[in-house]
Amino acid sequence: MYNSIGKNPIALLKLIYQRNNFAAISLGILCVFSLLAIFAPFIANHRPYVLVRQNSIEFPLFNMLRLSDWILFIGFFLGLLTFWFCRSMQRKAKCSKRATLYIYLGAVLLTFTASLLITLDRPTLDTTDYYALSQSRDNWAIFAPLVHDPVTANIAERLKEPGWQGDLSTTNWLGTDGAGADVCTRLIHASRIALSIGLISTSIALLLGVCVGSVMGYFGAWIDTLGMRIIEIFMAIPRLFLLLLVMAFIPPQFSSYTIYAMMIVIGLTSWMNCARFVRAEFLKLRELDYICAAKAVGLPRRSIIFYHLLPNGITPVLVDASFSIAAAILLETSLSFLGFGIKPPDPSWGQMLAEAIDPSTGVFHWWLAFFPGVMIFLTVFSLNCIGDALRDVLDSRFGDAAR
Amino acid sequence: MFPTWIGITLIVFMIVRFAPGRPGSESFEAGYLSADGQAASLSYYQRKLGLDQPLYKQYFSWWRSLFSTEIVASEEHQTRTFEFTLGYSLTSRSSVVSELKRRLPITLLISTLSIILIYIIAIPTGLLMAVTRGRRFDIGSNTLLLALWSVPIVLVATLLIGYTTTGSLGVQWFPNNGLSSIGAERLPFFAWLADRAWHLILPVVCISLGGFAYLAKQTRASVLENLSMDYVRTAKAKGVSGINIIKHHVFRNSLLPLITIFATLLPFMLAGSVIVEKIFNIEGMGLFTFRAVMNRDYDVVQAMALIAGVLNSFGLLVADIAYAAADPRIKYR
């Protein structure tokens, strides 16, 4: 079972589906959210796809797309394509496993770069009222399903309750926030930030954890002892405290880089579980015969670690990864809620949640608490469900892997 | 234990000292000082707080500053008094210990209450889930627990505050900030107690949800593990009824691993207290830490890190001792 899972993600997904339908549903929810995140500018945007203005044709939406958007789309389609291609090739046994791995890695890397770039290049602010423009005679336009901009403030429309207001595409389905921006649009754009923080910080943590854990597990002896002490130290510091420290000390002129600080700090403070699991696996595996044989044959150390130990010891990391993404998203939410994370006008779920209760008047705007809450909850819950199902499938005991 | 404390304080020290922004700098961010004045003010603060010293000296002087020594000379002899201060707050000019005397009991009250609440509710739930393994109750509550665990404290707090304290449903059920109503200290004892409890309900509920889910899941796993043991089969074979197996054999054995979870719950509570105390405006340790971080109050931040580390190791110690007390097979020599 180990081998079939270690090498084939499809087999794993099938196994999860057979064992646990709930996890399959959450996988679906997560897929929908990722699609929303990837195609956010196409779904919610006040710029039209096509604007025909007295014989001239413009493409405002495509003109505003940034480098990160393009990389994200290309990475997504490339990933889809290679996935399908490799599947069919593997069936005919024409594609070597290593080539498949490299193509996968390429697609993943592209997506990561894109999510890294997401807040670095902001779109230029465009306050043109395209909708009014398109209503006039001789002009027409094709709009995205939601005709709203996530960052433009509109004081005239602040704090509108959710509901129907006459016009299909300009209705604020989920209401507006304190600055007058559409809640639904902000939710969709915020899912980009939340997911990218989750992914990147977790990959930092996994990279670090796997490295530290494998070194500790392979060499053992004093390296192991030292590593365990360091892990203990890191586990004794409350993560939120450390994050607050770093975030509070970022000077205001660098406030647009807070998202990177957040990714790095969350990554640097959540590698401990991963390292512990990998270490435990390595300690178990290195006593086995095949490692002994590999050593006897005279294979170099890197070959033993990377090709013999790591592929077999990596499975608990999968479980840890999904819990760790969920935890990172929760941390981001809490930080943004407290005002240390994503700063307006960039959208974030936690920051919208914080707007729900007006501090001066004490009025509760339920739609600002409910809808971001649903998004946070569904994302985190799905990730946790998947982690739980993975743990059941892999059927090993991880002790207090949970939090 | 001690190396851990040194490690924690070293990490926090490094972050605090290498981070941009200096104490006193917020006074001239407001912009009522000229450039020269800013530089002068900065260097004044640097010298006053010893920030111009090399880093290792600063670190050692921080350890020394935890105890303030004072030489009291009287007519007969000189005495040196040690006072445990944990450093001084830059903003309030009082020692951290004197602040903590006021605030630590509040945080500990909330944490202890929620830990007790968690244990009281989670253990029967987990037990019931394990007994009904695979049936509808088990699967349903398993999913529910995972859901509870996925809800961030900030979301629960916002919804609870929104629906029960702002009167958006027509009634204001609970107070939304502080730990007691105005004038509560003049009330008779039981009224005061009721008032305090009324204020504590929401924070305690917020902080215990996640821990409750975690502990219940652990209880279920632990009971299930014990149910598959040989001694349970033996008991069944000699004709002990199902309820008696649980009551006399499994229950006590499966409680043992839950004791150690106390140590994992404590840091979780401390992190939660920062959020909960900020949201509910309770003057505890969490809010104190939060303000210290906001004000770049170096000494307080470092003292807080130290306290978190000490509380953590204290939790581990208590868990170990409790484990040894509960399990006669384990003896520490």
> In whole angstroms, how far apart are the ends of chain A?
27 Å
**What's the shape of chain A?**
globular
CATH architecture of one domain in chain B: Orthogonal Bundle
Main-sheet strand order of chain A equals 2-1-3
Number of strands of chain A: 3
Radius of gyration of chain B over alpha carbons? 25 Å
Q: How helix-rich are the residues of chain A, as a percent range?
A: 55-70%
CATH topology of one domain in chain A: MetI-like fold
What proportion of the residues of chain B is helical, as a percent range?
Answer: over 70%
Major beta sheet of chain A, specifics? Answer: 3 strands, antiparallel
The CATH architecture of one domain in chain A? Orthogonal Bundle
| Low-pLDDT residue intervals, each spanning 5 or more residues of chain B | none
Number of helices of chain B: 12
Q: How confident overall, as mean pLDDT of chain A?
A: 80
Strand content of chain B: under 5%
Shape of chain B: globular
Name of the top-level CATH class of one domain in chain B:
Mainly Alpha
How would you explain this protein's 3D organization?
The complex is a heterodimer of chains A (403) and B (333). Chain A has 18 helices and 3 strands. Chain A is mainly alpha-helical. In chain A, strand 1 (50-53) and strand 2 (56-58) form a beta hairpin. Chain A is globular. Mean pLDDT of chain A is 80; it is low at 1-7 and 396-403. Chain B is mainly alpha-helical. Chain B has a domain at 96-294: MetI-like fold, CATH 1.10.3720. Chain B has a two-stranded antiparallel ribbon with strand order 1-2. In chain B, strand 1 (67-73) and strand 2 (78-84) form a beta hairpin. In chain B, helix 5 runs antiparallel to helix 6, helix 6 (136-150) crosses helix 8 and helix 10 packs antiparallel against helix 12. The interface between A and B is large, with 51 and 54 residues.
